[in-house]
Protein backbone atom coordinates (compact mmCIF):
# COMPACT_ATOMS: atom_id res chain seq x y z
CA UNK A 1 0.00 0.00 0.00
CA UNK A 2 1.70 3.17 -1.21
CA UNK A 3 -0.04 6.50 -0.67
CA UNK A 4 0.17 9.53 1.61
CA UNK A 5 -2.35 8.02 4.03
CA UNK A 6 -1.01 4.45 3.92
CA UNK A 7 -0.42 4.31 7.68
CA UNK A 8 -3.97 5.51 8.39
CA UNK A 9 -5.42 2.92 6.01
CA UNK A 10 -3.29 0.15 7.55
CA UNK A 11 -4.42 1.12 11.05
CA UNK A 12 -8.02 1.07 9.81
CA UNK A 13 -7.50 -2.50 8.56
CA UNK A 14 -6.05 -3.56 11.92
CA UNK A 15 -9.01 -1.93 13.68
CA UNK A 16 -11.44 -3.82 11.43
CA UNK A 17 -9.76 -7.16 12.11
CA UNK A 18 -9.82 -6.45 15.85
CA UNK A 19 -13.57 -5.81 15.67
CA UNK A 20 -14.00 -9.11 13.85
CA UNK A 21 -11.97 -10.91 16.48
CA UNK A 22 -13.96 -9.27 19.29
CA UNK A 23 -17.23 -10.31 17.63
CA UNK A 24 -15.93 -13.85 16.92
CA UNK A 25 -16.87 -13.46 13.26
CA UNK A 26 -15.15 -16.67 12.13
CA UNK A 27 -13.21 -19.73 13.17
CA UNK A 28 -10.42 -21.32 11.14
CA UNK A 29 -11.27 -24.81 9.86
CA UNK A 30 -10.36 -27.19 7.06
CA UNK A 31 -12.62 -26.77 4.06
CA UNK A 32 -15.14 -29.65 4.09
CA UNK A 33 -15.15 -31.95 1.08
CA UNK A 34 -17.52 -30.65 -1.58
CA UNK A 35 -17.76 -27.18 -0.04
CA UNK A 36 -16.57 -24.03 -1.80
CA UNK A 37 -15.10 -20.98 -0.18
CA UNK A 38 -15.63 -17.38 -1.27
CA UNK A 39 -12.93 -14.78 -1.55
CA UNK A 40 -12.70 -11.47 0.27
CA UNK A 41 -11.42 -7.97 -0.40
CA UNK A 42 -10.80 -4.68 1.37
CA UNK A 43 -13.03 -1.68 0.74
CA UNK A 44 -11.69 1.70 1.81
CA UNK A 45 -13.74 4.79 2.59
CA UNK A 46 -13.23 8.13 4.30
CA UNK A 47 -15.84 9.46 6.70
CA UNK A 48 -16.38 13.21 6.45
CA UNK A 49 -17.87 15.81 8.77
CA UNK A 50 -20.62 18.31 7.92
CA UNK A 51 -18.07 20.56 6.20
CA UNK A 52 -16.73 17.82 3.96
CA UNK A 53 -13.44 17.43 5.86
CA UNK A 54 -12.03 13.92 6.36
CA UNK A 55 -12.88 12.79 9.88
CA UNK A 56 -11.48 9.27 9.83
CA UNK A 57 -10.38 6.45 7.55
CA UNK A 58 -12.47 3.27 7.44
CA UNK A 59 -11.55 -0.16 6.07
CA UNK A 60 -14.10 -2.92 5.54
CA UNK A 61 -13.29 -6.56 4.92
CA UNK A 62 -15.97 -7.68 2.49
CA UNK A 63 -16.85 -11.20 1.36
CA UNK A 64 -16.98 -11.74 -2.41
CA UNK A 65 -20.32 -13.48 -2.40
CA UNK A 66 -21.28 -12.88 -6.02
CA UNK A 67 -22.20 -16.55 -6.47
CA UNK A 68 -24.33 -17.04 -3.36
CA UNK A 69 -27.29 -19.29 -4.22
CA UNK A 70 -30.78 -18.57 -2.93
CA UNK A 71 -31.98 -21.29 -0.56
CA UNK A 72 -28.46 -22.67 -0.06
CA UNK A 73 -26.17 -19.80 0.91
CA UNK A 74 -28.98 -17.53 2.11
CA UNK A 75 -32.75 -17.57 2.57
CA UNK A 76 -34.03 -14.00 2.96
CA UNK A 77 -32.34 -10.65 2.34
CA UNK A 78 -34.96 -7.95 3.01
CA UNK A 79 -34.29 -5.44 5.77
CA UNK A 80 -36.21 -2.19 6.34
CA UNK A 81 -34.67 1.29 6.18
CA UNK A 82 -36.09 4.33 7.94
CA UNK A 83 -37.91 6.73 5.65
CA UNK A 84 -36.67 10.29 5.13
CA UNK A 85 -40.23 11.57 5.75
CA UNK A 86 -40.14 9.92 9.18
CA UNK A 87 -36.92 11.77 9.98
CA UNK A 88 -38.46 15.11 8.98
CA UNK A 89 -41.55 14.51 11.13
CA UNK A 90 -39.42 13.58 14.14
CA UNK A 91 -37.24 16.67 13.65
CA UNK A 92 -40.41 18.79 13.66
CA UNK A 93 -41.47 17.19 16.96
CA UNK A 94 -38.01 17.82 18.43
CA UNK A 95 -38.24 21.52 17.56
CA UNK A 96 -41.86 21.96 18.66
CA UNK A 97 -41.53 20.23 22.03
CA UNK A 98 -37.87 21.14 22.67
CA UNK A 99 -36.86 17.48 23.03
CA UNK A 100 -33.40 16.04 23.62
CA UNK A 101 -31.78 14.90 20.36
CA UNK A 102 -28.72 12.67 20.54
CA UNK A 103 -26.86 10.41 18.15
CA UNK A 104 -24.96 7.13 18.47
CA UNK A 105 -23.03 5.04 15.98
CA UNK A 106 -22.86 1.24 16.00
CA UNK A 107 -19.32 0.16 15.20
CA UNK A 108 -19.16 -2.64 12.59
CA UNK A 109 -22.91 -3.13 12.92
CA UNK A 110 -23.29 -6.02 10.46
CA UNK A 111 -20.81 -8.14 12.40
CA UNK A 112 -23.39 -8.46 15.18
CA UNK A 113 -25.80 -10.45 13.01
CA UNK A 114 -25.78 -14.22 13.59
CA UNK A 115 -25.27 -16.34 10.47
CA UNK A 116 -27.59 -19.31 10.05
CA UNK A 117 -26.09 -20.79 6.87
CA UNK A 118 -22.66 -22.42 6.45
CA UNK A 119 -20.36 -20.07 4.54
CA UNK A 120 -16.60 -20.48 4.13
CA UNK A 121 -14.23 -17.68 3.16
CA UNK A 122 -10.53 -17.29 2.35
CA UNK A 123 -8.35 -15.69 5.00
CA UNK A 124 -7.70 -12.02 4.17
CA UNK A 125 -4.62 -11.56 1.99
CA UNK A 126 -1.65 -10.27 3.94
CA UNK A 127 -3.18 -11.36 7.26
CA UNK A 128 -2.87 -15.16 7.12
CA UNK A 129 -2.61 -16.84 10.51
CA UNK A 130 0.90 -18.24 10.98
CA UNK A 131 0.92 -22.03 10.87
CA UNK A 132 -2.69 -22.14 9.64
CA UNK A 133 -2.26 -20.72 6.15
CA UNK A 134 -4.14 -23.63 4.52
CA UNK A 135 -7.27 -23.23 6.65
CA UNK A 136 -10.34 -21.21 5.69
CA UNK A 137 -12.68 -18.99 7.69
CA UNK A 138 -15.98 -20.58 8.68
CA UNK A 139 -18.20 -17.55 9.14
CA UNK A 140 -20.23 -17.38 12.35
CA UNK A 141 -21.40 -13.80 11.89
CA UNK A 142 -22.92 -12.07 8.90
CA UNK A 143 -19.90 -10.30 7.44
CA UNK A 144 -20.20 -7.37 5.04
CA UNK A 145 -20.76 -8.53 1.46
CA UNK A 146 -23.13 -11.39 2.28
CA UNK A 147 -26.56 -10.94 0.74
CA UNK A 148 -28.22 -11.57 4.11
CA UNK A 149 -25.88 -9.32 6.13
CA UNK A 150 -28.20 -6.33 6.43
CA UNK A 151 -31.20 -8.48 7.35
CA UNK A 152 -29.31 -10.42 10.04
CA UNK A 153 -28.15 -7.17 11.64
CA UNK A 154 -31.70 -5.79 11.66
CA UNK A 155 -33.05 -8.99 13.26
CA UNK A 156 -30.36 -8.88 15.94
CA UNK A 157 -31.00 -5.21 16.73
CA UNK A 158 -34.79 -5.59 16.67
CA UNK A 159 -34.71 -8.52 19.11
CA UNK A 160 -32.33 -6.66 21.42
CA UNK A 161 -34.13 -3.31 21.55
CA UNK A 162 -37.65 -4.78 21.90
CA UNK A 163 -36.42 -6.87 24.86
CA UNK A 164 -35.77 -3.54 26.62
CA UNK A 165 -39.38 -2.40 26.32
CA UNK A 166 -39.26 -0.58 22.99
CA UNK A 167 -42.18 -1.06 20.60
CA UNK A 168 -41.64 -1.14 16.84
CA UNK A 169 -43.60 1.42 14.79
CA UNK A 170 -46.22 -0.21 12.56
CA UNK A 171 -45.59 2.17 9.65
CA UNK A 172 -41.81 2.60 9.82
CA UNK A 173 -40.15 -0.52 11.20
CA UNK A 174 -36.89 1.31 11.95
CA UNK A 175 -38.56 3.59 14.50
CA UNK A 176 -39.05 2.40 18.07
CA UNK A 177 -40.69 4.03 21.08
CA UNK A 178 -40.60 3.38 24.80
CA UNK A 179 -43.02 5.02 27.24
CA UNK A 180 -42.79 5.09 31.04
CA UNK A 181 -45.48 7.23 32.65
CA UNK A 182 -45.06 10.75 31.29
CA UNK A 183 -41.56 9.97 29.99
CA UNK A 184 -40.85 8.70 26.49
CA UNK A 185 -37.98 8.07 24.13
CA UNK A 186 -37.96 7.51 20.37
CA UNK A 187 -35.20 5.59 18.62
CA UNK A 188 -34.54 5.89 14.89
CA UNK A 189 -32.29 3.26 13.26
CA UNK A 190 -30.67 4.02 9.91
CA UNK A 191 -28.38 1.04 9.20
CA UNK A 192 -25.67 1.76 11.81
CA UNK A 193 -26.69 5.30 12.78
CA UNK A 194 -29.03 5.78 15.74
CA UNK A 195 -30.97 8.91 16.67
CA UNK A 196 -32.42 9.17 20.17
CA UNK A 197 -35.23 11.62 20.90
CA UNK A 198 -36.43 11.96 24.49
CA UNK A 199 -38.24 14.26 26.90
CA UNK A 200 -36.21 12.99 29.86
CA UNK A 201 -32.40 13.10 30.16
CA UNK A 202 -32.18 10.23 32.68
CA UNK A 203 -34.18 7.95 30.40
CA UNK A 204 -31.96 8.96 27.49
CA UNK A 205 -28.80 7.95 29.37
CA UNK A 206 -30.35 4.66 30.50
CA UNK A 207 -30.97 3.70 26.87
CA UNK A 208 -27.44 4.72 25.91
CA UNK A 209 -26.04 2.47 28.63
CA UNK A 210 -28.19 -0.43 27.45
CA UNK A 211 -27.04 -0.03 23.85
CA UNK A 212 -23.38 0.21 24.91
CA UNK A 213 -23.68 -3.02 26.91
CA UNK A 214 -25.09 -4.95 23.95
CA UNK A 215 -23.14 -3.41 21.06
CA UNK A 216 -19.88 -1.58 20.52
CA UNK A 217 -21.19 1.99 20.37
CA UNK A 218 -19.80 5.45 19.81
CA UNK A 219 -21.70 8.17 21.65
CA UNK A 220 -21.81 11.25 19.42
CA UNK A 221 -23.62 13.42 21.98
CA UNK A 222 -26.11 15.95 20.66
CA UNK A 223 -26.91 15.16 17.04
CA UNK A 224 -25.30 17.51 14.54
CA UNK A 225 -24.68 15.42 11.42
CA UNK A 226 -26.46 12.22 10.42
CA UNK A 227 -26.83 10.33 7.09
CA UNK A 228 -25.29 13.24 5.23
CA UNK A 229 -27.60 15.84 6.79
CA UNK A 230 -26.35 18.65 9.01
CA UNK A 231 -28.58 19.48 11.98
CA UNK A 232 -28.43 22.89 13.61
CA UNK A 233 -30.54 24.11 16.54
CA UNK A 234 -31.33 27.22 18.50
CA UNK A 235 -33.26 25.83 21.45
CA UNK A 236 -33.85 29.29 22.95
CA UNK A 237 -35.76 30.23 19.79
CA UNK A 238 -37.33 26.80 19.25
CA UNK A 239 -35.59 26.49 15.88
CA UNK A 240 -34.16 23.42 14.16
CA UNK A 241 -32.79 23.28 10.63
CA UNK A 242 -31.54 20.60 8.25
CA UNK A 243 -28.88 21.27 5.64
CA UNK A 244 -26.89 19.33 3.04
CA UNK A 245 -24.35 22.06 2.34
CA UNK A 246 -21.44 19.61 2.49
CA UNK A 247 -23.07 17.35 -0.11
CA UNK A 248 -23.85 20.32 -2.37
CA UNK A 249 -20.22 21.47 -2.22
CA UNK A 250 -19.06 17.94 -3.01
CA UNK A 251 -21.29 17.80 -6.10
CA UNK A 252 -20.04 21.20 -7.26
CA UNK A 253 -16.44 20.01 -6.92
CA UNK A 254 -17.19 16.80 -8.82
CA UNK A 255 -18.49 18.78 -11.80
CA UNK A 256 -15.81 21.48 -11.44
CA UNK A 257 -18.35 24.18 -10.60
CA UNK A 258 -17.10 25.03 -7.11
CA UNK A 259 -15.60 28.29 -8.45
CA UNK A 260 -18.71 29.36 -10.34
CA UNK A 261 -20.46 32.66 -9.59
CA UNK A 262 -23.55 32.22 -7.45
CA UNK A 263 -26.91 33.88 -7.94
CA UNK A 264 -29.63 34.70 -5.44
CA UNK A 265 -32.29 33.38 -7.83
CA UNK A 266 -31.85 30.39 -10.17
CA UNK A 267 -32.89 32.25 -13.34
CA UNK A 268 -32.75 35.81 -14.64
CA UNK A 269 -35.92 37.85 -14.18
CA UNK A 270 -37.97 38.03 -17.38
CA UNK A 271 -36.46 34.90 -18.93
CA UNK A 272 -39.04 32.90 -20.89
CA UNK A 273 -39.43 29.31 -19.73
CA UNK A 274 -41.03 28.25 -23.04
Molecular structure report:
This protein is of the alpha+beta class. The protein has one domain (6-254). The chain has helices at residues 6-22, 84-97, 149-162, 201-214, 245-254; strands at 26-29, 37-48, 54-64, 100-106, 120-121, 136-139, 167-168, 175-180, 183-190, 193-198, 217-222, 225-226, 229-234, 239-243. Strands 7-8-9-10-4-11 form a 6-stranded antiparallel β-sheet, with helices on both faces. A hairpin with a 5-residue loop joins β2 (37-48) and β3. The longest helix has 17 residues, at 6-22. It is globular, with a radius of gyration of 22 Å. The model has no long low-confidence stretch (mean pLDDT 88).
Structural Rg: 22 Å
User: Span from first to last CA?
Assistant: 55 Å
Shape: globular
**Can you tell me the residue ranges where pLDDT is under 50 for at least 5 consecutive residues?**
none
Main β sheet profile: 6 strands, antiparallel
- Report helical residue fraction: 25-40%
What's the tally of helices?
A: 5
Helix/strand order:
HEEEHEEEHEEEEHEEEEH
Give the total of beta strands.
Answer: 14
Protein name: Reverse transcriptase Ty1/copia-type domain-containing protein
Pfam families: RVT_2
Organism: Stephania cephalantha
